[in-house]
Amino acid sequence: MARKFVPQIITANDLFEGDVIYLKADGTWSREIAKAHIANSPEQVETMLDIANGQPGSIVGAYAMQIEINEDGTPAPNHFREEFRTRGPSNYFHGKQADIKQTGA
């Protein structure tokens, strides 16, 4: 019996800044998971991965991640690893979190 398809989005890391990014419907990237384009079939996943992998000068490590869909229709991680990735580094003295803390923004 075939397994039921689980909706997925494409995630990667920005090659220059290292940030976690998500593929949007227009083929550009967002740092906000809520803006990610949701693939509802294996064919859509393959097409989206082809788009992502066609951008080797700006992204690295693209892969499809399974998601849950929130009541408002936005994607949400369904695995603890992906939940961690949405929040950024766990050591807040590194990365953008440190910059925010220093500037008080």
From TrEMBL:
Region (Disordered): 72-105
Highest rank taxon of the organism: Bacteria
Annotated InterPro entries: DUF2849 (IPR021270)
Name recorded for this polypeptide: Sulfite reductase
Protein's organism: Ahrensia marina
